[in-house]
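We treat protein structure as text, and this decision shapes the records that our systems exchange. The tokens are whole numbers drawn from a learned vocabulary of local backbone shapes. Below, we set out a record of this kind in full and without editing:
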Amino acid sequence: MLEIRIAKNGTDLREAMNIRRSIFVDEQRLYTISDEDEFDSQATHLLAAANGNIVGTVRVYSGKNGTWWGGRLAILPSSRGKDTGSSLVKAAVELVREAKAKRFLAYIQSQNVPFFERLGWKKVEDISCCGLPHVLMEAPL
């Protein structure tokens, strides 16, 4: 059974960062040492747990003028294709909706655009991030 919850302590946050490092540094090689940045300290980190084990994470944070940002969606390979990612994204959208966000945006790797489109997200513009094609997308609120 999959549980989606907010990281509530340092242990949760370390586990989220370990998953992100395994995906964005080790697997995808988007970063050399760490993908952590200045937004992590202000972000709400959501976790997906299967049978008590953390298997995925995503973060959301408030920007300017009622715009919220999502990012760093990372799912362990063993939990991909099992609704883990869609459950995390839907929970993130609900969280920012409850916060009365005016917009919810994220930079999405181009190969993941169809996944987000199935969840109702719309393309805003094509960009490059970390040397790879990305798309700025907006969630339906």
User: Anything to note?
Assistant: The CA atoms of residues 25 and 33 lie 6 Å apart.
